[in-house]
Structures are given as structure tokens and as C-alpha cells.
Amino acid sequence: IYEDAAEAIRANYPNLTLIVEGGYYIRFADPVVGEICATNWGDGAGTGITKEQAAAVTTLSQKFRNNTEITSFNEAKYFLCTGNCGDQFAGCTNLESVDISTWTPTHLWDAFQNATNLKYLPNIGDLDVSQCISFAQAFYNCSNLEAITFNAIMCTSIGSGAFGKCSN
Fold first, then answer.
1. Are 135 and 110 in contact (CB under 8 A)?
2. How far apart, in whole angstroms, are the C-alpha atoms of residue 120 and residue 98?
3. CA nearest 99: which of 78, 119, 79, 122?
4. C-alpha closest to that of 158 among 136, 141, 140, 142
């Protein structure tokens, strides 16, 4: 069951006791992203993935790299990418937004390289980059990227080409 569906049932039927066993499934806005996540890290049946299952994922293993179908992955905030989070969305030319605010990367090399439609990274200011070593070419050729704000950045190196060919 999805959390929002359970809350809607509770709101409409306040006298009903709803018992949910297991975790809530994540409702993905992009069906392609949902299928990739359910297949690779979900319940084994390809039905879905719970928040608890997503939180156990420390790398997306380039499962999205060069995928030209996905348009959003704001549910990435449920995944806890640590260490080398680079090259995750490189070549995702239709990706417009992704929320990686819960990630704790040491590297974001090429993370969004050539994601030419990427405009928005919600809550990027909350990204923990305190141990980040390099952003080299992380946003290279993200020609529609409008702005990125970091609350506090303590990164050894932004790296060459991090924002190269970002015409906006």
C-alpha cells in the first residue's frame, strides 16, 4: 500500500482501524524509474519498493545511466547513496528534476553529465557534501540547468568542468 492511499482511507473513514503490515511502497511519479527501482531493489516480485528497502541502497549502480526515457526522480531522496555517487544520471537527456538531498557522496564525478534537460535539483542545499572530494564534470553540459544552491559546501575540489557548457 502507498502511504498517501492509507492516509486518504483514514481521513475518509475515521472509525476504521487500518493495519498495514510491512512498509509503505514509494509512489514514483515516473513509471520507468519505478520499474527500475522495483526490479533492482524492491520486493522481488517487481511490484514495488518500500522506503525501508530504498534506504538500504547505498549506490544506484548506474542503473539509470544513459536512460533517455526518465523525466524525474524526486524519490531519489529515499535512497542513501554514499561514497562514489558519480555517473548515476549521465546521459539522461530527458531528466528534468531529481532530489538527492539525502545523499552523502564523496564523489559526484560525471553524475549528471549531458543531462541536457536537467533544470532543477530540489533541496540540493541539504546535500551532505562535507566529505566530498570532487564534483568534476558533475553538471557538465547540463545546458538547461538554472541554479544550484548549497547551504554549506566543504568540498576538497569542485573539479574541472563541473559546470562546463551550462549555458543557463
1. no
2. 7
3. 122
4. 136
What does the pLDDT average to over 89-103?
92
Rounded to whole angstroms, the Cα distance separating 155 from 117 reads 26
Q: How many CB atoms lie within 10 A of CB 132?
A: 23
CA 133 from centroid of its chain's CA atoms: 20
What are the cell numbers at 11?
A: 481521513
| Grid cell for residue 128 | 551532505
Read off the C-alpha cell for 19.
Answer: 493495519
What per-residue confidence (pLDDT) applies to 127? 67
Contact between 33 and 72 under an 8 Å Cβ cutoff? The reply is: yes
DSSP of 16-30, one letter per residue? ------SPPBP--SS
* Phi, psi of 85, deg, nearest 5: -105, 20
- Confidence class of residue 120 from pLDDT cuts 50, 70 and 90? confident
What is the reported pLDDT for 153? 56
* Residue 45 reports pLDDT greater than 90: no
Length of the chain in terms of residues written = 168
